[in-house]
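job 3f2a | input accepted
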Amino acid sequence: MFCGLMELQLLLLIHVSPSQTTTYTVSLDYGSGCLATDSVVVSVSDPSLC
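job 3f2a | predicted structure (50 res):
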């Protein structure tokens, strides 16, 4: 088992298309005292292009 989001990059692919700048956060609890959290900000500079 692994603990960290770096390893999960190969497993998870999520497509998003927000109309405004949005922060997405994911938290994973492995149940063995190992908790991983990460977030990313998707910036929208011209919403008319979405």
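job 3f2a | The first strand starts at residue 22 and ends at 29.
job 3f2a | closed
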